[in-house]
Amino acid sequence: MRVGFFVTCLVDTMRPGIGFASLKLLEAAGCEVVVPEHQTCCGQPGYNSGDHKSAEAMALKFLAEFETFDYVVLPSGSCAGMIRVHYPDLFKHDPELSARFAALGQRTYELTDFLHRIARLEKVPGTFQGTVTYHDSCSGLRELDVYRQPRALLATMPGVKLQEMVESTTCCGFGGTFSLKYGELSTRMADNKCQHITATGADAIVGGDLGCLLNIEGRLRRTGDHTTRVLHVAEVLSGEEK
Amino acid sequence: MSAREAILGRIRNARNGKDRHEQAAGATEAIAAHLARHPRGPAPAMPGDLPARFRERALKLSSDVLETADRKEVPTLLARYLNERKLPLAGVCWPSLIGLPWSSAGLDMQSRPARDSDLVGVTGAFCAIAETGTLMLLSGAETPATTSLLPETHVAVIDPRRIVATMEDAWDLLRQECRQPPRAVNFVSGPSRTADIEQTVTLGAHGPYRVLLILAPAR
Amino acid sequence: MQNNAIDFKRQVTVKLADIKLQGALSRLQSRFVEGRSAVISEIADLPETRNAAAAIRDRVLNDLEHWLLQFEQQATARGAIVHWAETDEDVNRIVAGIARQHGVRTAAKSKSMVSEECELNDALEQAGVEVMETDLGEYILQLAHEAPSHIVAPVVHKNKEEVADLFAEKHQLPRKTGIAELCREAREILRPAFLNADMGISGANFLVAETGSALIVTNEGNGRLVTTLPRVHVAITGIEKVVPTLEDVSTLVRLLPRSATGQSITNYVSVLTGTRGDADHDGPEHFHIVLLDNGRSKLLGSDMQEMLRCIRCGACMNHCPVYQNIGGHAYGWVYPGPMGSILTPLLSGLEKSPDLPNASTFCGACAAVCPVKIPLPDLLRKLREQQMERGMKSRQETFMLKAWAWLALRPNLYALATRIAVRVMRLLGGKERLLHRLPGAHGWSDGRDFPAPAGRTFRELYRQGGRK
Ligand code: SF4
């Protein structure tokens, strides 16, 4: 199957290793992966800030670049949710376009969701020794029902011990521009999350959305925790963490 | 223009499009049809023994439950219940229940609506609901609402054959047996309670501190 | 009630630092969130039941005019008098008028959020009517001269020590410390208020069009007392609260207490229809129902109509990570949490509440639990769009958004700009690979470091055909 890979703007710029880790996993699952060269951002920052028009323009750009693939895969539940759930909504006024977006959305998956349910990956390339705890990012969880999938994949790794934190499904406080506009509130929410993480004693906090991970890592480091590793699930599964 | 007309006018204008009169006619018909059918929503299946389910749910809501096959035994059960809790052996009851042998059980029972000073109030129930362990009480001249409300102890004598599965079933029974709902239909589920202070449940807020349900078939 | 939402940001700082409040909020979360999850599963087919509940509300909202008329006709036929109020002030005027008409000197009131919109108590006091709140939480707030901070648990922001101090001071009785003793003391103080009140005031959770009834759910029994003992009963509620039939209201009652407090059913569900009969020993002689618009009707037919489905269960705020950290007062008006962040701008002015639509991460926890499936984050987003369209966003934010979009639509320029940006950030990160300060984004860096990027973008590395 031909998979179009959308790296997301955050992974592209802030942690490209997650992109390569994802590619490795998709190839291990037997996919033919294509990375369209001109991809940029899914348009979520503008969309969530009330800039409907820009979001429409970016959605159309995305459609042009990705419509031909069997599947589209992203290492982010948040951006995958934007494409699956919100793109069709953006074009409600245009039934034909809306239908094309809905069809594209149906073929668009968050990485672990795709690997587990569609590609049915049973043996992952990575090895990892240690205890991890998993943070469930909001959009992946509530828009795409991503909860079992990363856990099932991690469970195939003999060295990984999953130690669940309390309230793993509570928001970490990132929320895109929210984290800048309401920094104090956002920091408190991150702090609550960090306390739950620390309480597990895990070696690494793992998640599927880089935004949340930057937020969590930023708070952990600021409060003096320089040892707990903060990893994207693709990095752990592929063995590309460093 | 009155507030009523202004509000209704705004609501009317909010629905753009279709011709007003056509729309109004259609709406009235649709409303009449819905009212005539009064369809039920999804309700839990309630297989098995309704009185057993009622009892289990009522206990969960902190009601006390006693049972007897003989309605004449009700006063004795109540006297024992009150004695065990060192509660006064006097109270008021609905007129339909005054015929039970209260005084031979040592109870001073009066047939009248409750006043503030009454400590025990004995009522029947129109029916009871197994889904939630709830009583359905109808207000009326013979079934005063205060009896289940002012006294600290509320006792309800229930015919187990009048236990229905759901609130929807209770409404059906009401439709069958009454021309229209009485002034007050009160669904009662256990002693009054509050959790306003620190979300800690305390029984006996402004209504009864305890509710005793006695299942006893009416003849 | 005056809208103070303009002060939101400052209030956030205050509330985050309030240790007592933080303790109280953690209790709310554990009791209500866990409580709901324990009983919501009793509903055999939850998704279907929520769909049905949303459909019931939509049926009414899509034809509110006729359902209201049906309700009014039935209620009037049973002897109730229906009043229509455009604004909060109209409600106050109408209720004061009813009090005058019936020679009312004292009123006992059970909980009504709509009356909080109106600040009815103050208006009645001015009209010479002594009003006693009888819901324990509302009574405490009346003594303390405070507003509710939650629509179901109004006094959640106070702990029992504060209540004990308040009672000791106001009741002039020895200070109690146990919660049960405090409740008993309030019961004894309030009992005469019920018995002597000329008028009972309540809200109404639902209005049943089929029968012209007002439905009230309560736990304490005060709702039953104020609607049974006084000779006049006034029920105040919003025009959107109509529900077609007794079956429809049963579906909603199956969801409301479970979503609200984690109870399978509230202690009392009272369905009140008309006035007392000739032979009755109890019940009001006069039953007035006041229907308030206050901005609701203008939401009909708009893309915000779904908000009117709300049955005021409070689940959205109980599950909201923002509410859980700041409580209800920070929101500045009657309704807090996610539903308040939508209702306050809609009913009380978007320009007065610029922060409320934005103070959400769109985590979606609210929509996931809302019993009538209101897409709360979508409605918040629509308010943000309105802010954008009406030029209510800061110039800096608008510029940033437009600049980002402009760039993202020009892949080559975007590639260049991002390549430069990540190199600069990599440099600034230094050996530690952490940025301690982000110019222009101190909201982030006041409390958090920023992990420095690798210094190369994925796309450039990929194009070079390799890894790092
Ligand atoms: S919006 Fe939904 S969850 Fe929130 S109070 Fe209203 S009905 Fe309850």
Automatic annotation (TrEMBL), chain A:
GO terms for molecular function: oxidoreductase activity. One of its GO terms (cellular component) is cytosol. It holds the Pfam family CCG. Residues 3-84, 132-216 form the Cysteine-rich domain. PANTHER family: LACTATE UTILIZATION PROTEIN A, UNCHARACTERIZED PROTEIN YKGE. This is Lactate utilization protein A. It comes from mine drainage metagenome. The lineage of its organism: unclassified sequences, metagenomes, ecological metagenomes.
